[in-house]
Amino acid sequence: MHHYRTHTCGELTEININSEVKLSGWIHSKRDHGGLLFIDLRDQFGITQIVIDKNNKVFTLLEHLKVESVIKVLGKVIARSKETVNKKIITGDVEVLINEVDILSVSNVLPMQVAGNENYGDEIRLKNRFLDLRREKVKKNIILRSEVISFIRNKMIENGFQEFQTPILTAASPEGARDFLVPSRIHRGKFYALPQAPQQFKQLIMVSGFDKYFQIAPCFRDEDARADRSPGEFYQLDIEMAFVEQDDIFTLLESVLTQTFKKFSEKKIVEVPFPKISYNDSLLKYGTDKPDLRNPLVIKEYTDFFKSDSINLNIFKNIINKGGVMKVIVAPIGKDKPRSFFDKLNNWAKEEGASGLGYMSFNKDDLGLIGKGPIAKNIDIELQKKLISDLSIKEDEGVFFICDEVSQATKFSGKVRTKLAEELNLIEDDKFMFCWIVDFPMYEIDDNTKKINFSHNPFSMPQGGLDSLKNKNPLEVKACQYDLVCNGIELSSGAIRNHKPEIMKKAFEIAGYSEEVIKKEFPALYYAFQFGAPPHGGIAPGLDRIVMLIAGEKNIRDITMFPMNQKAEDLLMGAPNIVNQEQLKELNIHLIEENE
Question: What is the pLDDT of residues 358-375, one digit of tens each?
Fold first, then answer.
């Protein structure tokens, strides 16, 4: 017989009745029923009820043992009485009558309870993460994460991909985010950087003649925490393929992710191929390049209507005359929505930094549909009819108005679209709605410098190649770039890469970078491209976000084994911490005091 157990705490059933078994685990809970002590014994696999009567020599010992102590028990499996059967667990038909007990580890008083569903703050959960991980919900999320990654890895191998590991200590690179730097002991005054992503390495793998690469890749970025990204580090399914076009990558990822989400979730999944939405159309219709397609509301531009002399709304006209736009959203608000509903939205809009949120509601009377609300009073009946016709407004619908300069109106209309859907319960929570955002602009104007800069990934191939770079307005050049979005969350960015040195030189030249800068900032990639590089492309879905969606969690910390807090601190390990002067001296580092 095994020293610690013959079975786990999650597998005993009626077929084991009358068997002698050995179990090991944590005391999940205890119940004293006047001479009979019932204990729920827990391990990773489940819970088994064990029972001991007061005549047993170890009764008193167990009676005083604290929950979460670890014990080993030897006993006989017996059937539970009918009134105590628990159909919610696999072991609910049986219990173990204890003969012997061995105390393996004693627990102190707990800083947080493992049993039950009590909510604790992030600080106590992260400081006691090992206890938090014992709780059922968190434990299931971590096991789910392991299973999802294993499933995806197998699917990639089935699709002919090979898994390669790329360096963790590498060179600093201007890829957008702030690097984590690692000082070199051997090379005085020089630093390694932790990779923001294996971007250049995976392209070099393609140049090296490998055809299909993937990696479950750790990425490191010195960024502030967000709900959908851990501070400091995250994991992605890093993919690169040679001799491919955009649709080849789409087909692969649609297959792998559809199978993954179907395997681990019961929610409905949009059928493949996923819809493709241009970047410009996404901004126009949804106010964001990360649209949640579960939300049926669509934004429309309706600027010209408010230029009419018959409309006495100078607050809008003044903005429009200065180059602003009017965005409108039609929503099914229902019959006779109270004024408080609109006041609440108006107050929310002010909290978001807007001047307010204009609206009209529509009900039917003897003359047909008629608008109500402050704005309706300034639009005559004939123009209201035109508005109703143009926007296909139906009875018991409302229209909401967002007027501002273009970028602000676009951004805020996206927020209004989401807020309305939430308030009106329009979002279909039982679905995963994927889409591709395509045709990103290659360049944009930097708000601070007012100069042309890359808008996405500088390694991307411009649509039309060198010809478009030479002959088009840079702001009109589209890139072979794409994002994968699910339920309003960006899962991945990718691109068909620029593999030709002459196109790379021209692309960087437009953004103000000389060939010497390319050689300095991206020496390996630029050098390698001189010796024959295949057309190639890739993508890198975020594994943390995939698991978060499947688990139905709102925060990335709930699917991460040992997460940091919002300040990028590991409360359990005490990181970051202060190192001693000897270590700093060895690395040739001198810390500057704040007043120096």
Answer: 999 988 876 778 888 888
Cβ atoms 471, 465 nearer than 8 A: no
Q: In which residue are the tokens 């478009």 written?
A: 468
Edge-first strand order for the sheet with 232-242 is 162-163, 212-221, 232-242, 536-539, 489-496, 481-486, 434-438, 276-278
Q: Which residues are paired to 438 by β-bridges?
A: 278, 482
Per-residue pLDDT of 100-119, as tens digits, reads: 999 999 999 999 999 988 99
* 448 vs 464: CA distance, rounded Å: 29
Contacting residues for 2 by C-beta, under 8 A, at least 6 apart: 22
Cα 344 from Cα 252, distance rounded (Å): 45
Q: 321, 314 in Cβ contact below 8 A?
A: no
At residue 549's C-alpha, the angle toward residues 546 and 554, to 5°, is: 125
Report the alpha-carbon distance of residue 527 to residue 525 in Å, rounded.
5
| pTM for this model (two decimals) | 0.92
CA dihedral 192, 197, 199, 205 (to 10 degrees): 80
Indicate the DSSP class of residue 573: T
Instruction: For Cα atoms 63, 29, 565, give the angle at the middle one, nearest 5 degrees.
Output: 130
